[in-house]
Amino acid sequence: MTQQAAAAGSAKRYNPRLELYKGIWKRLRKNKSAVIGGGIVIFFILLAIFGPMLTGVDPNATDITNKNQPPSADHWFGTDNYGRDMFTRIIYGTKLTLIVGFLSVFIGGAVGVVFGIVSGYYGGWVDAVIMRIMDVLLAFPGILLALAIVSVLGGSLTNMIIAIGIFSVPAFARIVRGSALSVRKLEYIDAMKALGASDIRIIFKHILPNVTSPIIVQATLRIATAVLTASGLSFLGLGAQPPAPEWGAMLSAGRTYMHDAPHMVLIPGIMIVIVVLAFNIFGDGLRDALDPKMNK
């Protein structure tokens, strides 16, 4: 009886989902570059949330007498052409950059996942119509498609988020469609249909949970693309409008003073590179960790 009770207790303590998460964390932790990338991502997220508390300076406060000053003890990252503190503007710009990245990917992911899962589940003419629309969107380079959308909607932070979200839709739709096509052929899906389960129930309760891994990986990698695209649009004057401390806009403003005040270009440029690189490295590591075929 004692052995049976111990065996029963051991069975109760075993949690397959918990073991799955432990395996993912173990594989991710072995990837040193992914850990570093994830650490940098977390650092910038914390900086966006708590960074403004580190400085009591208004990011838009001007001081013409101290314009184009190099980095110093008073101004760690120097000042811009209006005498505004670059360190403060970089901190506030972190929040703007991450908001654009996360919101645009959320919009693109939400729409793309719905299109992809419906296309993969139903197939036939539904699949053909949705995928042809995605092919049309994919025919345009991402930055050009976003540029065209923003040109129509007008230059603003909100319109930039919408534009990046729209051009992110095809990437999510194609990945989710491929995963849904493989999952819908499994026997338990046929069993659910035989039991009379509705399509909505099958799609959102049984297929969607099985395609979350590629969605998470794609979202992480897509944030890097969104940040880079947002910086490019703001650099062209079609994204965040002055005096918003967006990194691409700061880069654009600093190019005029590149020779006299190189820090105005170098610092926001380095920030963009670090964030994009961190999300890409972390996304690659996350893809390896979530791959069920990884068995070392």
Automatic annotation (TrEMBL):
Residues 94-283 form the ABC transmembrane type-1 domain. It is found in: Cell membrane. InterPro entries: ABC_transport_permease, BP-dependent_transpt_permease, MetI-like, MetI-like_sf, OppC_N. Keywords: Cell membrane, Membrane, Transmembrane, Transmembrane helix, Transport. It is a multi-pass membrane protein. PROSITE patterns: ABC_TM1. The chain crosses the membrane at residues 34-54, 96-124, 136-154, 160-176, 223-241, 261-283. Its main location: membrane. Belongs to the binding-protein-dependent transport system permease family. OppBC subfamily. This is Peptide/nickel transport system permease protein. It comes from Bhargavaea ullalensis. The lineage of its organism: Bacteria, Bacillati, Bacillota, Bacilli, Bacillales.
